[in-house]
Amino acid sequence: MTQYASVRYVVDDVPAAVEFYTRHLGFTLHTSPAPAAFADVVRGPLRLLLSGPASSGARATPPEAAEPGRNRIHLIVDDLDAEIDRLKGAGVPFRSEPVSGPGGRQILVGDPAGNLVELFQPASR
């Protein structure tokens, strides 16, 4: 059995979230037992749990912690500029401008529920 590191995102619309992650960010659908309530997608060792309002994961979330955006998943890309161009062409909403630092460059995109995804290109070593 494959071992994944799992992250749960609470989303408003499970099918829209599945479409976003599989179409734009290279995830594949892992399971979708209740399409309106829950699905999970994988990319490498990351299993992203997409929990809709009817899911137990969403119902267990206290109201003060239900807003998206405080945490984010971090996806490494080979060419940040090419990813920015590709995603802009697809109409994906950006939540920041590119930022450079000693470790590399990054930009934030928002999924359909407003959760953040960081695209990161490591600095050349």
UniProtKB/TrEMBL annotation:
Its keywords, alphabetically, are: Metal-binding
Top-level taxonomic group = Bacteria
Q: What are the residue boundaries of the VOC domain, all occurrences included?
A: 3-122
Q: What's a Pfam family in this record?
A: Glyoxalase
Could you tell me which SUPFAM superfamilies the record lists for this protein?
A: Glyoxalase/Bleomycin resistance protein/Dihydroxybiphenyl dioxygenase (SSF54593)
What are the GO BP annotations of this UniProt entry?
L-methylmalonyl-CoA metabolic process
The protein's GO terms of the molecular function aspect are:
metal ion binding; methylmalonyl-CoA epimerase activity
Q: Could you tell me what this protein is called?
A: VOC domain-containing protein
Species source reads Cryptosporangium aurantiacum
